[in-house]
Amino acid sequence: MSLAPRVVLVHRTTEYEELVAHHGTHGQAAFFLSSRGRDIAEVAERHRRTRRALAEVTAAIPLTWRQTQVERGDLDRFLFAPEDVVVVVGQDGLVANVAKYLAGQPVVGIDTDPGRNLGVLVRHRPADAAALLPAVRTSAVDELTMVEAVADDTQRIVALNEIYLGAAGHQTARYRLGLEGDGGVVEAQASSGVLVGTGTGATGWIRSVWQERGAALSLPRPTDDRLLWFVREAWPSPATGTSLVAGELAASARLTLTVESERLIAFGDGMEQDALQLTWGQSVRVGMAGTSLRLVG
């Protein structure tokens, strides 16, 4: 007898909750914000909208299904099961935060603040949950491409938007960069790091670098089987070059980086606290992940 689906509601602590936790009371938080020209009423209203959305989605879960909730800060300690249906209640970035911990479970994004969010990943409103959830197993999904970095000591990280490789604190990183199958061409570089991103990431960090460069490369779509990569602020010197600074990775292609600094890191989707730690002489391969995010359209 198979288990009923379990709905995992993913949310994050609101700005209002963080303020009250830090300052002790609503009044003290209000005084703090007013001293900086802000009104706590706006923050409190966004908190209420988020809580109403969470309550509405919870009420829409079929009675025979199991359910649980997980806060963003606990994702790295939460065990997702194959039969889970993941419902992200919040912003686009929260979907990216949870994507790396999944293995094919369907994801429904619920926008708690329409108009403030782009709604690229949180495509639905709380009122849609009652119709969406019972049919989620047969609903059409978009298979969103993900990117992965795998180190030579088996450390691995997966991201939905982009992976950054460089020095902690974004200082100068030294490494050797190459493309597999490119005739063994490798270039020593000193830069602010390397960014490898997907079509989903093309609405964020990757897009800003792409626009800055005026790159001839076309931005991928979220479901495209290709990635873009950019070297940030490569520095030319007698020992370091700037000829390999941007490109495209097809589905099977890999970018390789060999560390020539005491310590570099690799992290995904801005989650620097969950980074691969790389030391002198280690190598890491970056390319398309074998898994994708199954986002309910």
Automatic annotation (TrEMBL):
Keyword Transferase among UniProt keywords: yes
Organism: Streptomyces longisporus
GO MF annotation, one: kinase activity
Gene3D superfamilies: Probable inorganic polyphosphate/atp-NAD kinase, domain 1 (3.40.50.10330), Probable inorganic polyphosphate/atp-NAD kinase, domain 2 (2.60.200.30)
Keyword Transferase found: yes
Keyword set, alphabetical order: Kinase, Transferase
Name of the protein in its database record: NAD(+)/NADH kinase
Domain of life: Bacteria
